[in-house]
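Q: You know discrete backbone vocabularies at least as well as I do. I have my own habits and do not want them to colour yours. No explanation is needed for now; the record alone will do.
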Amino acid sequence: MELLITGSTGFVGRNLLLKVVQNPRWSRIILPVRDPEKLQGQLQGEGLDVGGRLCICRVTGDLWEIPSNVRPDLVIHAAGLLFGSSKDAYFQTNVEGSIRLVTRLPRTTRVIVLSSLAAGGPTPISVVARGAQHQDTPVSFYGASKLTMERELRNRLGSRLLILRPPMVLGPRDTATVQLFQMVKGKVWIKPGFLPKHYSWIDVGDLSGAILKAAAMEEWPEATKFYLESEETITDGQLLSTAAAAIGSSGFALPLPQSVIRLASLAINAVPEWLDALPSMGTDRVRELLHRRWVCDGSLFADKFGWKADSTLNQSLRETAGWLKQQGKI
């Protein structure tokens, strides 16, 4: 069985690859990346042999010009643009790039695509958690690009496509959490809005396990999309205090009016260097940040695939902090 993984130098894809190489099910693991040298360095840093079953090939941008002899049985599409400077940037990578990828695959190839809770949008008012039955209402260009990607791939692949929508993903090898840990090192932690915000989340190890659980199934249940989540719903205050505890820090959250956060995001978006340093504070992602509830219901996936998340927030953030310290990032 041949497996192709996109995004193997990124956060989720890299963690997923570390689990895949432990499974003899896959006789060949194809890794198309823009920077093969970067991937080889990461693999060597993890103590993995870059030869053997691994087949690394170079691609240009989002063109996905994979070798003609690559005919995977399954593709796990984990690549995508998480932080962008414009609507066009999100749609070019997440939509057009994904379409180019699937048009180069054999007609028998099945595809697991990693989408996002952002494609569905925040939890609808008057319900506890967003489920597959609720209307999709993305509030950001990022979320809209993921939803459009899902629809375009569904039109092309039909039952050969499985859509997974995780919420906030945490865990080791996530450089996006550097901002979080740097902030909680201080005594004052900025929190958008005066009321608590509620979130679903998932550890990257649990997410990787869920993806591979689905990858091992010969047939997938009939459903258009599946949410994934830890059963532990958290607040923004819990996220801050748990991250602080993970690095032995203490302080307090200072709520700021959401109007101040909006103005700050406009300033950050206007200066490329600031946006590179604080990508989660760009205007598009702040549209998501200002909503109070991002809670989803992952029970359908748990029931259909026999899967359950195991990690706690404390475990996940401690492992993340440990990895970031080893890398000299915090």
Q: What stands out?
A: The mean pLDDT is 94.
